[in-house]
Design goal:
The protein has 304 residues and is an alpha/beta fold. Helices cover 29% and strands 20% of the residues. It is built from eight helices and ten strands. The strands form two sheets. Strands 6-7-8-3-9-10 form a six-stranded mixed sheet, with helices on both faces. A hairpin with a 5-residue loop joins β1 and β2. The radius of gyration is 19 Å and the shape is globular.
Length: 304
């Protein structure tokens, strides 16, 4: 392992891709029609696979409500529905405080929704952390009293493999994320970028089919963040390794466009899906591609 569609929000989807083959697309009525790369793609015809088998992950009418200290009901998420297929990289963007992180936690099984369903491979996720998923947190989430290798192998303790196998697998992942030689270091001895590499290693060691990431690069300096973005892309683009799907929350719209097949745009709270936008830019992508800036401007306008 190496660390490196405008979609239908009602549930129908199509198979994603990796590599340089041309991707299918749908027109989006809220995208400024003078964008030449969008218009040309639309005129070339859509190749949406409407006969796709069961989505890998599906959100059905997810609603989340809280009751404050005064008994007032606060709706955070309002009927969120998404269909996520194999081989997709999806980013979720929207205003601050709009419930994006809450949505990830509900998908992971760390938090319950008030109503709605999370489906994984056609089966409902019921009141438990899903074993097919792993999560990378913004705050690193490392145990300060454990070494790097102990932090990485912590998640393996619950799946009943031997101590020797846990250690071997953890050391291999640590090497893959570029932390060889730091296996016995403590979090206080690591830079922010190194801590996040530990967080990524701890998620990947579980061999998840779905990797959830909550603003994983926001606390890092620009150069470190750029390097880690490329590492994640390498992992996801290799079909022989996990994860198969990456779903990331970010406030960085340009980052979302550069990395993603789809960008899901949420509204102000109570959050609903404003647009589920397919990013039709061939891979590998150039960071200075004019198309990236075009999409960034369109999405920023929708958020505002």
């Amino acid at each position: 392992m190496k660390l490196g569609k405008d979609a239908n929000p009602n549930g129908s989807g199509y198979e994603g891709h990796k590599g340089n083959e041309h991707q299918p697309s749908l027109i989006d009525e809220n995208v400024v029609p003078t964008s030449p790369f969008l218009v040309n793609d639309y005129n070339s015809g859509s190749r949406v696979n409407r006969n796709q088998a069961t989505p890998l992950l599906e959100l059905r009418d997810i609603t989340k409500e809280y009751v404050d200290d005064r008994g007032k009901k606060i709706v955070v998420l309002n009927n969120i529905s998404l269909s996520i297929n194999s081989h997709e990289y999806i980013s979720v963007v929207g205003p601050s405080g709009g419930g994006k992180s809450t949505l990830l936690r509900i998908m992971m099984g760390l938090e319950k929704c008030t109503s709605g369903e999370v489906m994984i491979k056609g089966e409902q996720l019921k009141d438990k952390v899903d074993p097919h998923m792993a999560m990378v947190f913004q705050s690193f989430g490392l145990f300060p009293w454990l070494t790097v290798v102990e932090n990485v192998e912590f998640g393996l303790e619950s799946i009943h493999i031997s101590k020797e196998e846990r250690r071997k697998k953890s050391v291999n992942i640590i090497q893959e994320v570029g932390l060889e030689g730091f296996e016995n270091a403590y979090p206080r001895e690591l830079s922010g970028g190194m801590k996040q590499r530990v967080g990524i290693a701890r998620a990947l060691v579980l061999d998840p089919e779905v990797l959830l990431m909550d603003e994983p690069f926001s606390a890092l300096d620009p150069l470190t963040a750029e390097a880690l973005r490329e590492e994640i892309l390498k992992v996801w683009s290799n079909r022989l390794t996990t994860p198969d799907v990456v779903m990331m929350v970010t406030h960085n719209v340009e980052e979302a466009v550069y990395l993603s097949d789809r960008v899901v745009i949420l509204s102000q709270r109570p959050a609903r899906v404003v647009k589920d936008l397919y990013i039709d830019i061939p891979r590998p992508r150039e960071k200075r591609d004019a198309s990236i800036y075009e999409y960034t401007d369109q999405i920023t306008t929708l958020i505002a």
